[in-house]
Amino acid sequence: MRVLRFAVVALMALGCATACEERPKTQESETTQGTGAATGAIAASGETGPADANTILIGEVGSLTGPEATFGVSTRNGIDLAIQQENAAGGVKGKKLKVRVYDDQSKPEEAANAVTRLISQDRVAVILGEVASSNSLAMAPKAQAAQTPMITPSSTNEKVTQVGDYIFRVCFIDAFQGYAMAKFAHDTLKVKTAAILKDQKSDYSLGLTKVFNTKFTEFGGKIVTIEAYSKGDTDFRAQLTAIKSAKPEALYIPGYYTDIGVIARQARELGIKTILLGGDGWESPTLTELGGSALDGSYYTNHYSPEDPSPHVQQFIAEYRKVYGAVPDSLAALGYDAARVAVDAMRRAKDLTGPSIRDAIAQTKAFPGVAGTISIDENRNAVKPAVVLKVEDGKTKFVTTVSP
Ligand code: PHE
Asked: Of 47, 80, 171, 292, which is most buried with the most CB atoms under 10 A?
């Protein structure tokens, strides 16, 4: 957790001068987080209500605490960096930008509460979030009903943007991500048999399982077994034992980093030597701390690699490092991109009402994101390449790019 804490401390040291709200010292602790279903989530800053006439309020919902905490913290860092830069560049329509962020504690119910607050009490112009698809799916119907545009930086499940015409994403979808890993496993790793271990409580995991199963089979591979766990489980030995006896050459685990670390260790303890494969949910500065050498030789699909030599990507990495003291992960990159797409749309919009901002977001074309170029298609998704990363000695290395 060292990296996470460092990022939070660095952010607080930054003072949120122009971008985000002043956060109380206890901001990091559980006590300021969502207060439960009865009263709903509270803003991390403790502030409530609309902004003054010279300020545009942007809402953000993220997992600042809980099992997906690095998703929320990295995303927030990326968003805050973008908004500071946009304010330094003059803001939007003569106004300054400010972000109001709510912690949903990695829970869909809290994400839904937070979005209700952002809409009815804070009256935000646009909502950024969530990362986990199940949380975005809990938020999207509320944003849609209120005609408040929502951009998820990183939720990849197809259903998220299908909720309605106010819901957008700046990342690829799982139909592509699952295909990319199935193709890489079959064509590059020459794997003929695979097992899948899915999180049956996660829309993300279920979606990727379906795509990988279909595509890997289409390519001529064989899925030998599909086992299931539920978010919050800590003992995966029964499922792993079943997988071991099915003798797959690869094991696809479309889950989130906290579970992946434990699963990888337990798999190796049981003598499973097979190659482990995953999706973007593996992406976290703590993945290799949690999984240790059990993850060496694994591969996962992702949105971006810090090894991308493009000058604008390297410039983003340098600026992020200067502020947060860490290399941005893909969540930070996508948070940065989502915030910049929102601001770009607000600049082009004829006014700052929900319908006008929505129309401007829908017209986003060839926007130079740091996690790939963003053109919003007719389904409000971005079509972009995926990268495959390999875990080696506690680090991730760029392997290849898979194009749609
Ligand atoms: N794509 C994941 C989901 O939809 C979230 C995620 C994105 C996690 C990028 C890590 C990195 O649930």
From this structure: 171
H or E stretch including 194?
Answer: strand 193-199
What pLDDT, on a 0 to 100 scale, did the predictor assign at position 11? 39
Measured CA to CA, the distance from residue 296 to residue 294 in angstroms comes to: 6
Name every residue whose Cβ is closer than 8 Å to that of residue 219 and which is 6 or more positions away in sequence: 182, 183, 186, 187
HSE-CB at 291 with a 13 A cutoff on CA atoms is 30
Question: Cα(90) to centroid of ligand 1, in Å?
Answer: 32
User: Distance, CA 132 to ligand 1 centroid (Å)?
Assistant: 5
The string of pLDDT tens digits covering residues 14-36 is 334 344 454 433 233 222 333 33
CA distances from 103 to 36, 74, 106 (A): 12, 13, 8
Answer whether 300's CB lies under 8 Å from 388's CB.
Answer: yes
Residue tagged 């493009």 (tokens): 310
Nearest CA to ligand 1 atom 8: 281
What are the backbone dihedrals phi and psi of residue 100, each rounded to the nearest 5 degrees, phi first?
-110, 115
d(CA 18, CA 81): 10
**What is the CATH code of the structural domain delimited by 174-302?**
3.40.50.2300
Q: Whose CA is nearest to atom 7 of ligand 1?
A: 154
pTM across the whole model: 0.91
Q: Quickly name the fold that domain 15-172+310-384 has.
A: Rossmann fold (3.40.50)
Compute the C-alpha angle 127/156/278, nearest 5°: 135
pLDDT tens per residue across span 272-296: 999 999 999 999 999 999 999 999 9
Residue limits of CATH 3.40.50.2300 in the chain: 15-172+310-384, 174-302
